[in-house]
Amino acid sequence: GYVWGGDAIGSVNDSSATVVFHTAGTRPVTVYREGDANYINSNTATATITVNAPPVITTQPQGQTVNAGQNASFTVVASGAAPLTYQWRKDGGNIAGATGATYSIASVQAGDAGSYTVYVTNSAGNATSNAATLTVNVPPAITSALIAGGTYGAAFTYTIAATNSPTSYSATGLPTGVTLNPTTGAITGTP
User: Fold this and answer.
1) How far separated are the first and last CA of the chain, in Å rounded?
2) Cα dist. 108→37, 92, 137, 143 in Å?
3) SS3 of residue 147 by DSSP
């Protein structure tokens, strides 16, 4: 039988051959003969216990906003017993090959926008980061005709239409008497 010391789960006098400790350190171990209740014919030794700590995320990945075509990068810092393994996820699904503490995306596109997390594991457990949101600013694209015709001396109205909520409009080569509203994209006047 065995007698375990320290912070063992169960009784300090647990007679099983296996015991679980929650902290590292040195523990006395007494090996005794079955039925030797007074430990008269026993031997005592000291065992060093190593407790593997589960991963703890100490620095969370941060959300970011980038323009389409720029690069984006997420980084996590975790502590715990080595080796730590990483698996990055986008919107809950694993990203193939994204298995380091940093995940980078070159030339971000609209489809890269989403919620990114990382799952960190080791022999003692696992931890999932907070979500980091990637927002991608996509430039506007004009959807209306690029050329509009009118009659000289007659009132003219035309509105530039574009996707992705432009914040301002501009136009060049407008005839005298015709102006552009830079907020709405409306071109009006009499040439």
Assistant:
1) 105
2) 71, 19, 10, 23
3) coil
Name the phi and psi angles at 112, rounded to 5: -80, -15
Residue partners of 63: CB distance under 8 A and separation at least 6: 131, 132, 133, 134, 135
**Contact, 179 vs 185, CB < 8 A?**
no
pLDDT, tens digit, 9 for 90 and up, residues 136-183: 999 999 999 988 888 999 999 999 999 988 999 999 999 999 999 999
- CB-CB contact of 25 with 47 (8 Å): no
Site of tokens 């590292």: 24
Q: What is the C-alpha R_g of the chain?
A: 34
Two tokens, residue 24: 């590292």
Q: What is the mean pLDDT of each run of 10 residues along the chain (191 residues)?
A: 53 55 61 58 61 91 97 97 96 98 97 98 96 95 90 95 92 93 96 93
pTM for this entry:
0.66
State how far the Cα of 46 lies from the Cα of 26, in Å rounded to an integer. Answer: 7
Amino acid at 54: P
